Amino acid sequence: MIGSLWKLARPQQWSKNLLCFAGVIFSGRFLELEHVVHAILVAVAFCAGSSAIYVLNDLIDRERDRQHPKKRERPLARGDVSPAAAGILGLSLAVLALWGTWQLNYETFLCLAILLVINLAYSTVLKHVVLLDVLCIASGFVLRLLAGIYAVDDQPTTWITLCTFFLAMFFGFSKRRGELQALRESEAESRPVLDSYSIDYLDNLLNSAATITILCYALFTVASGKNPALILTLPLVYYGVMRYQRIISTTEAVEEPERAVFADLRILLAFVVWLATYLIIERWDPQIFASPPAAESPTSAAAPLETSPPAASPDKAPAVE
Hints:
By secondary structure, the chain is mostly helical. The protein has 2 domains: 12-156, UbiA prenyltransferase (Tetracycline Repressor, domain 2); 157-286. Helix content is 64%, strand content 0%. The protein is built from 14 helices and no strands. It has helices spanning 2-8, 22-26, 33-60, 62-65, 75-78, 83-104, 106-124, 132-151, 158-181, 199-223, 234-250, 257-263, 265-284, 298-301. The chain is globular and about 65 Å long. 33% of the residues are buried.
């Protein structure tokens, strides 16, 4: 029974919550014990919260999962766990996760609460609506990122939010492509939304998401106010994205993007080199390229205001109110 409950929580999916550590890494606070502990706590809370979501999803889809050649082995679909036990487990995990984030700060708690609400809507309705299904998946990655940043008392930038969102959309569309490519007639009822997608359409969505992701990152390196030497990391980002797109385009079926990423040594190596290069540039601030000129604000472009009254003319006495 314990083993079935553990399997129901899907611990193999917890790797997605590594995104919660982005805040402590990119804020430069990974050497401060307090912030490292906060990052670990928010990651654990999101692991519990995401497991609660998976339990709910399996609970709702248990009849459809019985028709799927792989998903029929899930504990609820097989009957190894009763719906009542699954409900208690899911509710307990959700409450524990919310309590844990509340101990950190209000912003982190709000990120997890929004994630749970979105995934409740996803599990019941939105996963059957084309495009909105992937938008829900992408929002989950963004909320993990934001929660990790708020947990270390920092503020997210629009640049990191945009890059994460479009990269998550890229992964979401690749997941749908893998599912559609692996689809068989006997599986048609297990995920009805796939009827609204086609391989060609998903390839177009993948191309657009990949392009926007790389473009957002490129603009971030030169327009965010950071050291423009970060543009040296752009080829690594381009390689990683294009390498992954090649894998999902030439492999029979990649239904779980995170497994494809962790299974490919070249992508992992590109990520490690990118992260090391990024942190080195942020830490030592090498002056390789000239910084772009700062945009002139409307107030600075206007004529300077008088800061003191003009001196009275000797030929004319000042007026008396």
